[in-house]
Amino acid sequence: MEKLVYAVPLLFLLLGCSDSSSGGGSFDFEEEPAVQYGTVLFFNESSYGISIHSDAFSGPVVAELESGESKSVSVRASGNYGIGSVFAVGFRTKIIDGFNFSCGEIYAYGIDPNMQIAVNVEAGKKYTLQIPQPSELVFETAFIQILNNSSNSFELTKNSISYKQAGNGTLPVGAGEIGVYEIPASAAGTAFEGYRVKSVFNDYDVPPFDAVYSHVYRFSFDGSSVVKTGEESIVY
After folding, report:
1. 84/128: higher pLDDT
2. Strand partners, 52
3. How far apart, in whole angstroms, are the C-alpha atoms of residue 33 and residue 147?
4. Contacts (Cβ under 8 Å, ≥6 apart) of 68
5. Facing residues of 232 across strands?
6. How many other β-carbons are positioned within 10 Å of the β-carbon of residue 115?
């Protein structure tokens, strides 16, 4: 009987704790504010195809437009009245016309370092942003083109690894065709060395060079050697 006397008050204590902890409204949870949007009409006045990135040039793409095209896009409201939302614009230019070569259409993608547009997007409002012709374009890339003047196909290799062409994504370059490859480059020049042209059962060295941003390097393969035929800057 003595044990029962002590157990009853303990039971009421536990029930009281349970009621207080589960009572309605004892915990306050703040609801996350709903995401709000505004609308931006982008109009591409430049002569290039463009990609519009949010926040920075490395940010997600919110719109892609051809020259003269416009597109209306729903974007998150800035929510920071004063700084606004930033849109960075990337430009693409064709370096190979796929109509003439089997490699397909190949583009270089560049940026105008000054082409970052800030706008304070308020919820429910509409804005128009016109993208002008770039005043400067920087192409942080380079390409190598190899004309196959031999009667056999070839592949570009390094350390027994074959590389796909930039345009059509295939490995072999047929007789009379041009293989185009996007290659590592830098502003100061990146060593392009150790590459070979593999044709039938023989390998042929590609003459080494320093690959600089915004350049296209041209070579020719005649079935017995690979020779450099020229280089040029990607123009805009």
Report:
1. 128
2. 63, 89
3. 59
4. 44, 45
5. 216
6. 21
Burial 25-62 (b: 16+ CB within 10 A, else e): eeeeeeeeeeeeebebebebebebbbbbbbeeeeeeeb
CB 203 within 8 A of CB 218: no
Within 8 A by CB and 6+ apart from 41, the residues are 70, 71, 72, 73, 126, 127, 128, 129
Name the E strands within 13-60.
37-44, 49-54
Please give the pLDDT value at position 35: 73
Closest CA to 234 of 222, 217, 209: 217
- Identify each DSSP E strand in 120-224 by its residue range: 126-131, 138-139, 142-148, 155-158, 161-162, 178-183, 190-192, 196-199, 202-205, 209-211, 215-221
pLDDT band at 104 (very low <50, low <70, confident <90, very high): confident
Q: Which residue has the tokens 């039938």?
A: 200
Q: Is 8 helix (H, G, I), strand (E, B) or coil?
A: helix
192 in Cβ contact with 211 (< 8 Å): yes
Dihedral sign (CA 222, 224, 229, 232) = positive
Of the candidates 128, 119, 54, 130, which has an alpha carbon nearest to the alpha carbon of residue 88?
54
Q: Is the dihedral of CA 229, 230, 234, 236 positive or negative?
A: negative
Q: Where are the beta strands (DSSP E) in 97-158?
A: 106-119, 126-131, 138-139, 142-148, 155-158
Give 224 or 27, the one with higher predicted confidence: 224
SS3 content of the chain, % helix, strand, coil (to 5): 10, 45, 45
